[in-house]
Amino acid sequence: MTLVPRPGILEIAPYVGGESKVEGRATAIRLAANENPLGPSPKAVEAYRALSGDLNRYPDGGALALRRALAERYGLNFERLVCGAGSDELIALLVRAYAGPGDEVLYSRHGFLMYGISARSAGATPVTVPERSLTADVEALLGAVTERTRLLFLANPNNPTGSYLPYETLRGLAERLPSRVLLVIDAAYAEYVEASDYDDGLSLVERFPNVVVLRTFSKIHGLAALRLGWAYGPEAVIDVLNRVRGPFNVSAAALAAGVAAIGDAHHVERSRAHNARIHAWFVRQLERLNLRAEPSVGNFVLVRFGDAQGAADFLKSQGVLVRPVGAYGLPEHLRITLGTDEEMQAVVDALERYRQ
Ligand code: PLP
Asked: Which of 28, 141, 292, 346 is a Cys-bridge partner for 22, taking CB atoms 3.0 to 4.6 Å apart?
């Protein structure tokens, strides 16, 4: 007798994370996972260390201190906040709670892979919708809503394209989406965006009963290792998440570091400013090499190579790890996280050798 998982599970192509090691090299330049090259706030590291004497204690299952800190920082109602082990966990919990066999989970063609993986693991059907110029197409998304649609995921900005929808467009989507469909705005890269017409969507949560916003500590806060994300949503949705999550789904280390990270606005600003500067510099260098970066507002750029795998292999041979994005329907592109000045100079040097 063979053990058979529920329908849909074996259709999941397992998520392959960004590579972190190059064989034969002690260190690699890691630009494959959109991590903060400056690391976390020193205050977060201190808070993490300070916890080592209490490892026998369970974490605060209600994440009260962190929810309070988030509520204060963003002007939110802390009762409508829930924390998760990365936003990945919250994505999975939302799908599991609201969709099952026969239901559809909608997202755009080059949207974040975990939406489809979570849909399949809940037995639901992922439905992807074509984009326009590598950007989510609101008309097409709304046109794809059926009576079976339960959730619509929108990463804003999106990974791996780096594109975003301006606030007015996002609001239009929330207004026109039937209220029986949950709109999940995944704003993992919100802190990096400088465009004045961008909004993380938190204000839409106050206006619509079916809008949830997800945020993460893995990107600008540099705490990917600790797995920490949060959701802000209507009372009913937060109530549902609190019913389905594990009682101690976020570790004490993540909670402590998270509170310290939220309190360190200076580190966030330093990370944002570094990203903006190195982004502009790197795009100019790419142009010089006749390479094109798609417009991006995140901490990464999507670059068209044609033979993307060949370019990724070459870069790897030079000790530089970037992300092929064939699994996102972009077989000709590579996604390159914006690293430190030295790392980006090394990428440019390697690309120069590649173009020769
Ligand atoms: N959402 C988007 C758009 C992402 O790019 C990522 C990570 O790459 C995540 C969510 C997951 O982040 P976390 O580390 O919080 O699970």
From this structure: 28
pTM over 0.90: yes
Say how many Å lie between the CA of residue 218 and the centre of ligand 1: 7
Task: Give, as one character, the DSSP assignment of residue 58.
Answer: P
Q: Outline where the chain has alpha helix (H).
A: 42-50, 64-74, 86-98, 113-121, 138-143, 167-176, 202-207, 235-244, 252-263, 265-288, 308-317, 341-355
**Tokens found for residue 65:** 């201190």
**Does residue 87 contact residue 215 with C-beta atoms inside 8 Å?**
yes
Fold of 14-40+266-355: Aspartate Aminotransferase, domain 1 (3.90.1150)
Cβ contact 258:233 at 8 Å: no
pLDDT digits (tens, 9 = 90+) for 242-267: 999 999 999 999 999 999 999 999 99
87 CB under 6 A from ligand 1?
yes
Buried-exposed string 50-74: b where 16+ CB fall within 10 A, e elsewhere? ebeeeeeeebbeebeebbebbbeee
CATH code, 42-262: 3.40.640.10
The domain ranges of the chain are 14-40+266-355, 42-262
> For residue 121, which of 150, 101, 149, 147 has the smallest C-alpha distance?
101
The pLDDT tens digits of the residues spanning 279-308 come to 999 999 999 999 999 999 999 999 999 899
